[in-house]
Design goal:
Number of strands: 7
Shape: globular
Strand order of the largest sheet: 1-2-3-7-6
Strand content: 5-15%
Radius of gyration: 20 Å
Oligomer: single chain
Helix content: 40-55%
Order of helices and strands: HHHEHHHEHEEEHEHEHHHH
Distance between the termini: 57 Å
Structural class: alpha/beta
């Protein structure tokens, strides 16, 4: 039977697991290369995924990109690539090119959102709309512990509960809202505990365990697809790098605490499992990293060779059918 017939996601094993492993390594390669390129002045501000790969990949792999939607914040590149976003588009985005925010036809993905939690009402509206259309599609929206304190987060979770919208809220609790620790974000025993107040399902999971995240999100997707409403999944992880390339975490992160969390690196945990199963070895991993690095460098070369956008790009992709006012502004802006 297919996934749709059984209501259950396939087990995270075989080619599906190796594909997830590849995505985690690609994410780490992108982090390293983008960080270096930003320091060279070739990219703008970049937010690494470092330490959160299992939370992002495990949840994304519970979705069906052919029908489900992803609504990101700004630290979910692996999930976006899974949906069909292209690496070249991401690099355009980090260089300030509007092409980075335009989705290809058929890609079920909203653009990056920098304003904290501002994407969450959109996710609920999208899920609610899909349900009214008779679709069994699910919307997965990502946000962090800091974003959970925003009004948009509470309003979205409440509305999703009232309307039984098919939304999976993935709250990545990485320990920090820039430099604000979790203990200053909430007095609740966990973020998942808030779900009860919204009248929805809630689950707290080890966000550094790829398999645990995948299973928790698969259950959430199955509930949403069956019409049972939203789920708040708190993936407890740790941000092992800076908030972004403009941040200096050495000013507020205890180095001892950081090293303790490095012992739970999600990539290392998957690596140990795959090696124990005989699915990878050191040589095969090195070949894959080389391949992913070459893939990244080729994408970057293509992006740097592209013509920079002119002023006319300000008016493209604003409306499906441009308004008279927009067309007048385009003419006034000139060539």
């Amino acid at each position: 039977m297919s996934t749709a017939q059984t209501g259950h996601a396939p087990a995270l094993e075989g080619e599906l697991l190796l594909d997830a492993w590849r995505a985690m390594l690609r994410s780490r390669v992108c982090d390293q290369r983008c960080f270096s390129l930003q320091r060279q002045g070739r990219l703008g501000v970049f937010s690494p995924v470092n330490g959160e790969e299992a939370a992002v990949v495990g949840s994304a792999w519970a979705l069906d990109p052919a029908r489900d939607w992803v609504v990101p914040q700004y630290r979910e590149l692996p999930a976006m690539l899974r949906q069909g976003y292209r690496l070249e588009q991401a690099l355009h985005y980090y260089r300030g090119h509007p092409a980075g925010s335009r989705m290809d036809p058929g890609v079920r993905l909203l653009p990056y959102q920098i304003s904290l939690a501002a994407q969450m009402p959109h996710a609920v509206g999208l899920g609610w709309g899909l349900r009214h259309q008779g679709s069994d599609a699910v919307v997965c929206v990502y946000f962090g512990d800091g974003a959970s304190s925003e009004g948009d987060a509470h309003e979205s979770l409440n509305l999703a509960g009232v309307r039984r919208a098919p939304v999976v809220f993935v709250l990545k609790n990485n320990g920090w809202a820039i430099s604000t620790p979790v203990r200053r974000q909430t007095a609740a025993p966990s973020f998942a505990a808030r779900a009860e107040g919204y009248g929805i399902a809630g689950e707290r999971v080890d966000g550094n365990d790829l398999f645990a995240v995948y299973e928790a999100c698969s259950r959430a997707v199955a509930r949403a697809r069956a019409g049972e409403g939203p789920t708040l999944v708190e993936a407890v992880t740790y941000r092992m790098g800076p908030h972004n390339t403009a941040d200096d975490p050495t000013r507020y992160v205890d180095p001892v605490e950081l090293e303790e969390h490095r012992a739970h690196d999600p990539i290392e945990r998957v690596r140990r499992h795959l090696r124990a199963e005989g699915l990878i070895d050191e040589a095969s991993e090195e070949r894959l990293v080389d391949e992913l690095t070459a893939e990244f460098d080729a994408a970057m070369a293509e992006v740097e060779a592209a013509e920079p956008p002119g002023s006319e790009a300000l008016f493209d992709h604003v409306y499906g059918t441009p308004t008279q006012r927009l067309e007048r502004q385009r003419r006034e802006a000139g060539p």
